[in-house]
Amino acid sequence: MKIKDILLIGFLIGLLAPTIGIFGFYAYNFNMHNLADFVELSIKEKLLSPLLSLCCVINLGVFYLFIHFEKFKIAKGIILATFLYGFAIVVFKFFM
Q: 27-48: string of b/e by CB count within 10 Å (b at 16+)?
């Protein structure tokens, strides 16, 4: 299966990878609580920005994977999504 080198695909992958990481963290550590309680606790204890920062590291591995396969537009989309997450992290850190 060949993946087309499209910026939008990279952007969607860049948004999806940290989201999967957050759900994995939730499933591993907070599976006895529901998702709404997890989000509420993360906001209340100011853990959301560090959690997002940690999960954005996943994008680094995905980025290098697509660079290795010479899918440069997908890699650019992943970087764009990471910048969007970075903006959200700053907002959560300083304005919430």
A: eeeeeeeeeeebeeebeeeeeb
